[in-house]
Description:
With 287 residues, the chain is of the alpha/beta class. The chain has two domains: 7-68 and 88-206, 2-enoyl-CoA Hydratase, Chain A, domain 1; 210-273, Orthogonal Bundle (Lyase 2-enoyl-coa Hydratase, Chain  A, domain 2), CATH 1.10.12.10. Helix content is 40%, strand content 15%. The strands form two sheets. Strands 1-2-3-5-7-10 form a six-stranded mixed beta sheet, with helices on both faces. Strands 4-6-8-9 form a four-stranded mixed beta sheet. The longest helix is centred in the first third of the chain and has 16 residues, at 31-46. It starts with 6 loop residues before the first strand and ends in a 14-residue tail after the last helix.
Amino acid sequence: MPEYTQIRYEVSDSIATVTLARPEKMNAFTGVMMRELLDVFDVIDADDAARAVIVTGDGKAFCAGADLSGGAKTFDDGDWSSTSDDSVRRDGGGQVTLRIFACKKPVIAAINGAAVGIGATMTLPMDVRLASSAARIGFVFTRRGIVPEACSSWFLPRVVGISRAAEWVYTGRILSADEAASGGLVRTVYAPEELLPAARTLAREIADNTSGVSVALSRQMLWRMLGADHPMQAHRVDSRAIQLRGRSADAHEGVTSFLEKRPAKFSDSVAASLPDVFPEWQDPQFS
């Protein structure tokens, strides 16, 4: 297991927990944290013991955004005039959100406190967002003289709709947990002490009752079809997936356990046996 300095990672009872761990800095995002998050999601995908993932923050904050200790030039990438991709340094937050998007396991955000800037946008490719009543969420980019990052111009309108996304981004205001919930960004708001238990209950329901491979494929299907331009694309993928999974040990066990009125014991490995139901899909490359 890698040793991390700005996050913590543990797996217990099939639930992986990733904790952003710079509490003295409100878990502000750094290059080190970016690299550790990229690495830990590789670890998660390769570990069949991890059936669901919870991401939360240590202390009072979830993530207070980019570490601004560098001062006015925090976002200054030096002097360049070309707008072609070959002269642009990749956005670190975007690398993280793309890695979460590609994760094979369901990801639950337990937003325990301030989630601002990248602290908000990194939650968008997570599957379910739960929040403490103490959470404050902000897409504050226009108030810092920059623009939305971490692929949030793609994710946010798909999560909450274009009009609400536009309002939140244009104003850059800080949202209460209740406003985030009423806008569809957060599923449920909990008292602070109830947040992690609620996240674990949801993760436990997934881990105890479902096929890991089926969940992994379903996650890819739901997210990727957000960009499809016709339901026929979904029909092609569905048909491949049903055919491939119908032959699997998990499918046989799912039917047999139902008929025998007992809990299923799924055995297929996500790390070893995830079929490709997107043969025409090519991950876009940043050049």
